[in-house]
């Protein structure tokens, strides 16, 4: 089976994007892992499928698979690349693009200067909806990790996130703690682990250990999660620049019950095909 694809990235968070409208695509977990392999395949953090919509409320169905082959609910950087892809491939001429994901519908808007704004929806804090094992919803939770107690905030931005505050992002033990948090038993579906350094009320630095991937150069939903938790902790204003290893995202969130908006770049790198 020969598959045409486009390699893309959003601030270094890289994707293999596949048109499953004009190609008959049926991929299993082993094939996705093979495509994602950086030594023997194309190499990517996530594989994205563009599918026809299931109903008239959206223009496309957006599916996301992590490098380990697991299908996941949401990917913010991928959403921006998705919007750029369907427009560049002339699958739509619209600049406001509603799409369906496994966690609900989101709206993608193509802006000037290669930027894309994504309405990521309303953050979810109820533990069983994240899912996260806790007796009740709270702004702060104590999580035992590697024989220490971490203070975390927990939220779903269509996918689960645990956020902790650190003094210095450069020296934070992201790889060690990130792996332990990702697979912690209190997160039944595993979790993305974010490490946030607050610079001021309008700027944070962030590193994210992504579920099923490891640390990436950027994580869009992770940026949204960190900003939302920072707002709940009375550390941040409603418009925040999130500085990631791969670049900066603008995140806006007014208040609980309101959607989160993310703005950032999306870039096509090359097109190709692969035989599976």
TrEMBL record:
Molecular-function GO terms, alphabetical: diaminopimelate epimerase activity
GO CC aspect terms: cytosol
Group of enzyme by EC: isomerase
Record's keyword terms, sorted: Amino-acid biosynthesis, Cytoplasm, Isomerase, Lysine biosynthesis
One protein family per Pfam: DAP_epimerase
The keyword Cytoplasm is annotated on this UniProt entry: yes
EC number(s) from the headed UniProt entry: 5.1.1.7
Gene Ontology terms describing biological process: lysine biosynthetic process via diaminopimelate
Cited InterPro entries: DAP_epimerase_DapF (IPR001653)
SUPFAM superfamilies assigned: Diaminopimelate epimerase-like (SSF54506)
Gene3D superfamilies documented for this protein: Diaminopimelate Epimerase, Chain A, domain 1
Family named by the database record: Belongs to the diaminopimelate epimerase family.
Matching NCBIfam families: DapF
The protein's name in its UniProt record: Diaminopimelate epimerase
Source organism of this protein record: hydrothermal vent metagenome
Organism lineage string: unclassified sequences, metagenomes, ecological metagenomes
């Amino acid at each position: 089976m020969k598959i045409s694809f486009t390699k893309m990235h959003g601030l270094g968070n890289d994707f293999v994007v596949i048109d499953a409208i004009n190609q008959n695509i049926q991929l299993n977990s082993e094939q996705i892992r093979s495509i994602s392999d950086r030594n023997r395949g194309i190499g990517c953090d996530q594989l994205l499928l563009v599918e026809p919509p299931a109903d008239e409320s959206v223009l496309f169905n957006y599916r996301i698979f992590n490098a380990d082959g697991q299908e996941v609910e949401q990917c913010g950087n991928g959403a921006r690349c998705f919007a750029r892809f369907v427009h560049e491939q002339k699958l739509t001429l619209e600049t406001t693009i509603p799409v369906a994901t496994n966690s609900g519908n989101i709206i993608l808007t193509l802006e000037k200067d290669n930027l894309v704004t994504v309405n990521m929806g309303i953050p979810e804090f109820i533990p069983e909806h994240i899912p996260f094992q806790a007796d009740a919803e709270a702004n702060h939770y104590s999580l035992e990790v590697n024989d220490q107690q971490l203070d975390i905030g927990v939220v779903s931005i269509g996918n689960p996130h645990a956020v902790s505050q650190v003094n210095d992002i450069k020296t934070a033990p992201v790889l060690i703690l990130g792996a332990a948090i990702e697979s912690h038993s209190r997160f039944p579906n595993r979790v993305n682990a974010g490490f946030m350094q607050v610079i001021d009320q309008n700027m944070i630095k962030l590193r994210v250990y992504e579920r099923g991937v490891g640390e990436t150069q950027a994580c869009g939903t992770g940026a949204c999660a960190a900003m939302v938790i920072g707002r709940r902790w009375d550390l941040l204003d409603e418009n925040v620049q999130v500085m990631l290893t791969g670049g900066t995202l603008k995140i806006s969130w007014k208040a609980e019950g309101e959607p989160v908006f993310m703005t950032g770049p999306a870039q096509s790198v090359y097109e190709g095909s692969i035989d599976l």
